[in-house]
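Quick one from the shared queue. A colleague (R.T.) flagged Colanic acid biosynthesis glycosyl transferase WcaI as missing a structural entry in our internal table.

Convert sequence to structure tokens.
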Amino acid sequence: MPKRLLLIGGNFAPELTGIGKYNGEMIRWLAHNGYDCTVITSFPHYPQWRIQAPYQKSRYWFKKEVTGDAGITVYRCPQYIPSNPSGKKRLLMDFSFGLSVTVKSLQQLFTRKTDIVVVVAPPFHLGLLAILYKKIRGARFLYHIQDLQIEAARDLKMISSPFLIRSMFRMEKYILRHADVVSSISEGMMKKVQEKTGREVSFFPNWVDVSFFHPLANREQIKTEYGFAVTDKVILYAGAIGEKQGLEAILQVADCMKNDAHVKFLICGAGPYREQLRLQTASLQLDNVHFRDPEPFDRFNRLLNMADVHLVIQKASAGDLVMPSKLTTILAVGGLALVTALEHTSLHSLVKENNIGIVIDPESPEALKEGICLAINKKQEHIARNARQYALNYLAVDRIMSRLDQVIRAST
């Protein structure tokens, strides 16, 4: 009889970026490898910060769907989605989702036997529901940390109340203490979790489908499909357009380089700060900066192959709290990544030690400009080769998911 696994998480497929992408791929892999999978999650909304088609009409109530040839059961739960997610609005969003997911989880708790409950944080507090399953039904609890939410909210000044921050840390410590398996995606984050609990933390980095994302030979021709000239040097940022990225630096560098007609900047994605960036671009009269909606999944490999330089930008305060998920696909296509990271962070060490990208200081337009000039004016084929090989050796989805499968089975 297959083991019954329940995923509780705030994001899920068909979201194409961030945690939703990885949750969807994880459950599909587990379902195809013998698990009976159920998911309790939200309606697709990231990175646009609005409910996506075709879910708009049903977003105010619970919705059940069965997806894929493996018969994955997905329960969508309503929640408040802020179009401009400030710290307080995000708290309200998490609170509203916590209420609705608790209703659905309690319903499942007393109607369906579950062997393993997987919670992917954030939202971090969903781990309380897994503890309930563990205490009442004897389920094993795997807590996977994609983002250290509390530290990020504190360091990015999204939450300023010391009392609230302390209360959240106490709740998180309780969850970590009761999980059977705790895992995370980077050495820096693992170290921070270990410091909180003193317990072992498993390493499951974000993976990539190296057969779908791969290098293409006709990169210059692909540029013309996107409206660029073959001779253009395309600097691409593809991902969520949010507060922690610090994307204003792109506009500052574009302003400095606007006299170079062959250097083009493309910002592809969605998020609460996109319109603000567009307005700044217009006010600066930057003809070398272009915006594009998120690319459909079946064309994303072509978009990544088209770019000469890939920007992996985040603020310094986010340094070891977030391992950028976009970096995995860039590496898989053999892209040249320009990564902002402080010297002491795990991200800086990963890129430098494996020579899979160019690392620069965060929040420095001068460093960003120097990095772009280095990337486009000096041959970097060795970095592209190293990037692809690193993805094949360490980030292939089957390698990582097979290890996750072993950990799950060992804990039950």
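The CA atoms of residues 205 and 216 lie 25 Å apart.
The chain has 15 helices and 14 strands.
Added to the table.
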